[in-house]
TrEMBL record:
It is an enzyme of class 5 (isomerase). Keywords: Isomerase, tRNA processing. This is tRNA pseudouridine synthase. The gene is LOC107269194. It comes from Cephus cinctus (Wheat stem sawfly). Substrate binds at residue 126. The lineage of its organism: Eukaryota, Metazoa, Ecdysozoa, Arthropoda, Hexapoda. HAMAP family: TruA. GO terms for biological process: tRNA pseudouridine synthesis. The active site is at 61 (nucleophile). The keyword tRNA processing applies. Coiled coil: none annotated.
Length: 307
């Protein structure tokens, strides 16, 4: 049985999230990213003897997008040889196109079982994309930004947001920034953000209608791992500071006195539409060491198997 390391991109608007609900759920849960990819892999020819089960590096929520996510899957066919990586990518992406899925596999690398998509990840990078009205009362919104970014009114102080970013620097307990959820295992709330910064952005279509009516930004955050809803809550709290709904002192209290009960109700988690998993980073030397060189193995080319 060969393990394949996959990278993928997707537009998450229509999906209920990355990970299927429950253990051993039916492969046809195609309203989840995981289920849709497993459905594509279950149609390989020759078929995999074992049902494809995707182990994902990051469990994005409903509506969240990914520019670069990753996972691994173990497959074994009746010939007991490896699938050709290039033809596996083409096969899966043809399935996504035919079925109207907003998912694309971008790479496929056979790896040893020592390599694990989630455990070997060194860090994850998220961006939150938003646009701010230049003038009050703007009702015109670029259609190209719909479900791809978050629209904010002109009552937004970028300098306040920039200053408030310092509150999150260093190693912190983020219990305030995740919902109170029951868990079988103890939750580790202490996390370190490697960086959290504001950057100017640009419209998705430069010469589209109404694009000049807005300032474009994104918040970029990197860390080894994040709690459920942590990024959306951190961004929501920063937006509340920038709009004068809470003060920087209020934000510091939320961080310095970590407890889900200390979430300030004047702040709200931002919608999923502006959130992108931008990258999952690995040690390139570790990945190289764990990569199986196809030239040393028998390979089945899926394109030659298509009838």
């Amino acid at each position: 049985m060969v393990r394949y390391f996959l990278t993928m991109s997707y537009i998450g608007t229509r999906y209920r999230g990355m990970q299927k609900h429950g253990i051993g759920e039916n492969v046809n849960q195609v309203d989840f990213i995981q289920g849709a990819i497993e459905a594509a892999l279950s149609r390989l020819v020759p078929a995999s003897i074992n049902p494809p089960f995707l182990t994902v590096s990051s469990r994005t929520d409903a509506g969240v997008h990914a520019l670069h996510s990753s996972a691994h899957v173990e497959l074994q066919n009746k010939y007991d040889v490896m699938y050709d990586s290039s033809s596996l990518i083409r096969w899966a992406n043809r399935y996504f196109t035919r079925c109207g899925h907003d998912i694309r596999i971008t790479s496929c690398v056979p790896v040893t079982h020592e390599f694990h998509a989630r455990h070997c990840a060194k860090s994850r990078t998220y961006i939150y994309r938003f646009l701010v009205d230049k003038l009050p009362g703007s009702n015109s919104f670029p259609i190209s930004e719909l479900d791809r970014s978050f629209h904010i009114g002109s009552d937004f102080d970028v300098e306040k947001l920039q200053k408030a970013l310092d509150v999150f620097k260093g190693r912190k307990d983020f219990q305030t920034f995740t919902p109170n959820k029951k868990s079988r295992k103890p939750i580790r709330y202490v996390r370190t953000l490697n960086y959290f910064k504001l950057e100017k952005s640009a419209p998705l279509i430069l010469d589209g209608p109404f694009v000049d009516n807005f300032h474009y930004y994104h918040l970029k955050v990197n860390g080894k791992s994040f709690l459920y809803n942590q990024v959306r809550r951190m961004v929501g709290a920063l937006f509340a500071v920038a709009r004068g709904r809470i003060t920087e002192k209020d934000l510091r209290t939320m961080v310095q006195v970590p407890n889900y009960k200390n979430w300030n109700p004047r702040a709200t988690a931002v919608p999923a539409c502006g959130l992108y998993l931008a990258d999952v980073e690995y040690d390139p030397e570790e990945l190289k060491r764990c990569t199986i060189v196809p030239e040393n193995c028998a390979v089945v080319d899926l394109d030659n198997e298509i009838e």
